[in-house]
Design a protein that fits this description.
This protein is mainly β. Helices cover 5% and strands 50% of the residues. It is built from 3 helices and 23 strands. The strands form 2 sheets. The protein has a 16-stranded antiparallel barrel. A 3-stranded antiparallel beta sheet has the order 15-18-19, with no helix packed on it. A hairpin with a 2-residue loop joins strand 9 and strand 10.
Length: 416
């Protein structure tokens, strides 16, 4: 039913990145290499594991390691990467696909240049970047996420595909989350739907600016957050994403972000109306996010609206999604957290005039959990998630899980 978009690590691309870093001149004497690592082991229990085969065990386990190699070359140049190694099922959404598989995925890998004047700082980055849309991707580490699951817009395979075209409203309303089969052009047969926002990388370039209480970012990438593309396809899939925020006071920030650009695969070009191209049917989104913290309490939340233009519709398929997350520290070692979120399909109208107020089921998810710091870098956490699909009942999609997370910060070398 759900699965994050996962792209296997391309060793040639990473090798090229690090060779590029090695060729950069070291400026000044502030140079060094560091490699923090977060290693996690997890177990979960859910009947999601039995959806495809009732004879499967409802319990499973997996692991995850994220490496963060960083190279600092002088006072301005640096390189940064975040590479994930994972055995699934590990995350809650993995439980819909119970086979044990191994993945290596680039979350970020870029060259950067930073500069500062007064209270204004500018950072320029190029390489594999986290999407500038949304706020959650930068809290994806298991020590930063107080719970075990992720918000719905970052993991749900919605009933739309990038390599098929729905014929109209009736076609859309007969699709399911995680399995989509349309018949008006594209790859034949059924397959997974698209995920609105990837948690992994897009090739491109970005400028970050902060000045006083304002911060902003502008990103140009090859591919949409809903359909990342290789850098060689940048000419056809080049698009933008942007975001910014204002810190009202210390610990309280509000922000906005958006993106727009083509998302349909090139195999659909011949099926599009005469005189149109892939760029005539973009994916677009706007989002609002907020963070607040005071004393023992912290709050995070997002609201997002997505549109996916399609040639057979006068009112494009779209979704709204959002979540609110609260965390409170009970003792220096113990915290409790909860998250409530939803994903709601919008109305559609096809070219024949057939409409639907909601072309798919509304999803809601509620997760309650706790964590205990056994030491400075060792975290044990667990949670229970209630998942509900509109019109459904029962507890088969609910999940209970635990994770043990260890963070290594001391791996590093300095040089002149």
């Amino acid at each position: 039913m759900m699965r994050a978009t996962m792209r296997h690590l391309k060793s040639a691309r990473l090798a090229g990145l690090w060779l590029g870093l090695a060729a950069l001149p070291a400026i000044g004497q502030e140079s060094g290499i560091s490699m923090p690592i977060t290693v996690s082991g997890g177990a979960l229990y859910s009947q999601r594991l039995q959806f495809a085969n009732p004879s499967n065990s409802p319990a499973t386990a997996g692991f995850r390691a994220v490496l963060y190699p960083t190279v600092k070359l002088g006072t301005h140049w640096f390189g940064y990467a975040a590479v994930q190694l994972r055995e699934s099922p590990y995350f809650y959404y993995d439980a819909f696909f119970p086979e044990h598989e191994y993945y290596s995925t680039v979350m970020q890998a870029f060259i950067g240049y930073s500069m500062r004047k007064g209270n204004t700082a500018v950072v320029i980055k190029a390489g594999e970047l986290a999407s500038a849309f949304g706020a959650f991707p930068l809290r994806y580490d298991d020590t930063d996420n107080p719970l075990l699951d992720q918000p719905l817009s970052y993991i749900t395979e919605i009933p739309l595909r990038t390599d098929q075209l729905p014929c109209g409203t009736n076609d859309l309303t007969h699709q399911n989350y995680g399995f989509v089969s349309n018949s008006c052009g594209g790859t034949p047969g059924g397959g997974a739907g698209l995920t609105p926002v990837t948690l992994y990388s897009l090739p491109g370039a970005q400028v970050d600016i902060s000045s006083g209480r304002f911060d902003g970012r502008f990103q140009v990438t090859s591919g949409s957050p809903a359909n990342p593309r290789d850098i060689s396809q940048a000419g056809q899939y080049l698009q933008w994403a942007a975001g910014g925020g204002y810190t009202i006071r210390q610990g309280f920030r509000i922000g906005m972000s958006g993106f727009r650009g083509p998302y349909l695969n090139e195999n659909l070009a011949a099926a599009l109306p005469l005189g149109t191209t892939l760029r005539s049917f973009p994916a677009s989104a706007i989002g609002v996010d907020g963070q607040w913290g005071h004393g023992r309490w912290s709050v995070n939340g997002e609201w997002q609206k997505f549109w996916f233009d399609s040639p057979n519709f006068s009112t494009a398929p779209g979704f709204t999604s959002g979540y609110g997350e609260v965390k409170t520290v009970i003792t220096p070692h113990l915290f409790v957290a909860g998250r409530a979120g939803w994903l709601s399909p919008g109305s559609v109208r096809d070219l024949s005039g057939i409409t639907s107020n909601e072309f798919a089921k509304r999803l809601t998810a509620y997760e309650l959990g706790a964590g205990y710091w056994l030491g400075r870098n060792e975290l044990l956490k667990g949670s229970y998630e209630w998942m509900h699909s509109e019109g459904g009942s029962g507890t088969r999609s609910n999940v209970v899980g635990v994770q043990f997370v260890v963070r290594f910060n001391s791996l590093g070398w300095t040089f002149r």
